[in-house]
Design brief:
By secondary structure, the chain is α/β, with parallel strands linked by helices. It has 3 domains: 50-252 and 463-473, Aldehyde Dehydrogenase, Chain A, domain 1 (3-Layer(aba) Sandwich), CATH 3.40.605; 257-446, Aldehyde Dehydrogenase, Chain A, domain 2 (3-Layer(aba) Sandwich); 485-526. The chain has 18 helices and 18 strands. The strands form 4 sheets. It has a 7-stranded mixed beta sheet, sandwiched between helices. Strand 13, helix 12 and strand 14 (388-394) form a beta-alpha-beta unit. Helix 3 (74-85) runs antiparallel to helix 6 (178-194), helix 9 crosses helix 10 and helix 16 runs antiparallel to helix 17. The longest helix is centred in the first third of the chain and has 27 residues, at 89-115. The structure holds nicotinamide-adenine-dinucleotide. Residues 5, 145-150, 154, 172, 174-175, 210-211, 214-215, 218, 228-230, 233, 236-237, 251-254, 285, 383, 385, 411, 452, 457 line the site of nicotinamide-adenine-dinucleotide. Nicotinamide-adenine-dinucleotide is lined by residues 5, 145-150, 154, 172, 174-175, 210-211, 214-215, 218, 228-230, 233, 236-237, 251-254, 285, 383, 385, 411, 452, 457.
Length: 530
């Protein structure tokens, strides 16, 4: 193996999923080994042959059907998602099911304009008798490796974009949320049946397993990889992909900054900070991971946030009263705990929370607000991915910009205050998405590109830019005078001077000079006639 990704599983091994809220076993699944991964890729390759021949209008119709089916099965899907990921049902409904249905509709309506071929003008007079066009063709088989935190909407949006552009897909979901991916596959296959597109193999193949199964997908004969996950895995994946020049889109972690100016609406901004940091128990790549508040409103901001955090109901996501669910795993809980404990040891003050909630279950951590933090603490520079809101004051706007940009990450950020002040600040933030007086919702805008700068990733998913990353341009040029030899072909003898005059004719300043130059090109034309 070339990549340094080591396969550690043996044929016949299985993995088990558990409900993060109560630790109950949900199901167990066979791990796809190298042979099975390659067989899935081969099936996807075969499927792409027929799928890419299905007219775009029918591929779009399929995705409209998928959107309808997602809506029809929203309750069942939200139950599966909450069972596997622990998030509150309302979040599963909106941030997974609705975002996925919106993505399907976006692909159905906008793919035609992305796939439309474009005329290429020929400015040089010598090339005028030609017609050039850029045509867009699918890449082939797209590998998608997905995380657990948005177990439906992340793989769904990428899968729909791949399908509508004529690609097939091999999807490797997170080992923590396989059932959600299987449900997505089922919805797509159902829609294919309803559309009368029953040819086998199917254009979406799901492979299940742990990291090494994903590693095998990267090693396999796919044409592009969309990886969403942590920076450390993303780096390993990118290195393996580089070995074989496999194009990759990387959607990685974030340390998203929220800047609150002193003319912001305090009630709105504090509600946003609490929701933005606690949504999905803080396990959102575009969440609020650090908050900078202008000193004039700082103490009021803290007291309002503490009050609002106190009012949150923590519990199992399946309970419709729950605001904040459990963390996904013990491992994730340890990371959060370590970061908060380290900050505390370095002088930070935990205003509320800062401890586990064992009475609720093993994976619960209290919604937490920490002040007196600085950038020497991992809580302010590494991804926390937990229900923790660290807040620090700033004086001048420039200080907020400097601190927000003082990060290896650059996924998303937000600025709160009058648009007159907030918008110019937003433009100076190093992030793939910057929202003014809102947060996170950019991910739900199906037409908006999603992706990061710095260690947060490479390339874009979602929107027209995301579709563009799944097609390749082919330049097709047709000469309209097939019986004419070109002036610049052999023999070169005696052609240099007239050719130099030709260059002058095109580019010398002054009309008269260009006319004079054009006369000097006549021998060239006469010679060519003979
Ligand atoms: P992860 O990196 O642990 O795993 C992501 C996926 O990669 C999983 O399917 C996993 O099985 C697979 N994988 C693990 N090792 C692999 C290997 N060596 N080769 C190939 N595949 C491998 O991430 P996670 O814990 O599932 O997800 C959380 C992370 O994802 C966070 O850092 C979060 O910020 C990030 N994330 C980013 C975005 C975004 O759009 N930028 C969205 C959601 C989550």
């Amino acid at each position: 193996m070339s990549s340094g990704i080591h396969l550690i599983f043996k044929a016949g091994e299985r993995f088990t999923t558990t409900n993060p809220a109560n630790g109950q076993r949900l199901a167990d699944y066979a791990i796809a080994d190298a042979t099975e991964v390659n067989a899935a890729i081969a099936r996807a390759r075969q499927a792409q042959q027929w799928w890419s021949q299905v007219p775009l209008i029918r591929r779009a119709a399929l995705l409209r059907r998928v959107a309808r089916l997602l809506n029809e099965s929203k309750q069942a899907l939200a139950t599966v998602i909450t069972g596997e990921s622990g998030k509150p049902m309302l979040e599963a409904l909106l941030n997974d099911v609705l975002v996925s249905a919106d993505a399907a509709l976006f692909c159905a309506t906008d793919a035609a304009s992305v796939m439309r071929s474009e005329d290429v003008p020929h400015h040089n007079i010598a090339l005028r008798l030609k017609r050039g066009r850029i045509e867009w063709e699918p890449l082939g088989v797209i590998g998608i490796i997905a995380p657990w935190n948005y177990p439906l909407s992340i793989p769904a949006a990428d899968t729909f974009a791949a399908l509508v552009t004529g690609n097939s897909v091999v999807l490797k979901p997170s080992e923590l949320t396989p059932q959600t991916a299987l449900a997505l596959e089922q919805v797509i296959n159902h829609a294919l049946d309803e559309e009368g597109l029953t040819t086998l193999p199917r254009p979406v193949q799901v492979i299940l397993g742990l990291g090494p199964t994903g590693g095998q997908l990267v090693e396999g004969e796919i044409d592009k990889l969309i990886f969403t996950g942590s920076v450390s895995t993303g780096r390993r994946v990118a290195m393996a992909a580089a070995e074989r020049l496999l194009p990759v889109t990387l959607e990685l972690g974030g340390k998203d900054a929220m800047i609150v100016l002193d003319d912001a609406d305090l009630d709105v901004a504090t509600s946003a900070a609490v929701w933005g940091s606690m949504l999905n128990a803080g396990q959102t790549c575009v969440s609020v991971e650090r908050c900078y508040v202008q000193r004039k409103i700082y103490s009021k901001f803290i007291s309002q946030c503490v009050q609002k955090i106190q009012a949150l109901k923590v519990g199992p996501g399946a309970d419709q009263q729950t605001d904040v669910g459990p963390l996904i795993t013990q491992r994730q809980l340890h990371i959060v705990e370590q970061q908060v404990d380290e900050a505390r040891a370095l002088g930070a003050i935990v205003q509320i929370g800062g401890h586990r909630l064992p009475e609720l279950g093993e994976n619960f951590y209290a919604p937490t607000l920490v002040t007196d933090v600085d950038h020497t603490m991992s809580l302010m520079c590494e991804e926390t991915f937990g229900p923790v809101l660290p807040v620090t004051p700033f004086d001048a706007d420039e200080d907020a910009i400097r601190m927000a940009n003082d990060s290896d990450f650059g996924l998303a950020s937000s600025v709160w205050g009058s648009t007159r002040r907030a918008e110019p600040i937003a433009r100076q933030l190093q992030a793939g998405t910057v929202l003014v007086n809102d947060l996170i919702s950019g991910f739900a805008v199906a037409a908006a590109p999603h992706g990061g700068v710095k260690h947060s990733g490479l390339g874009r998913t979602h929107g027209r830019l995301g579709l563009r990353e799944l097609v390749r341009p082919r330049y097709v040029d047709v000469d309209l005078m097939p019986s004419m030899k070109k002036l610049w072909w052999y023999p070169y003898a005696q052609n240099f001077q007239p050719m130099a005059a030709f260059v002058d004719m095109l580019h010398q300043p002054g009309l008269l000079a260009r006319l004079r130059a054009s006369l000097k090109t006549i021998p060239l034309l006469l010679r060519r006639r003979r």
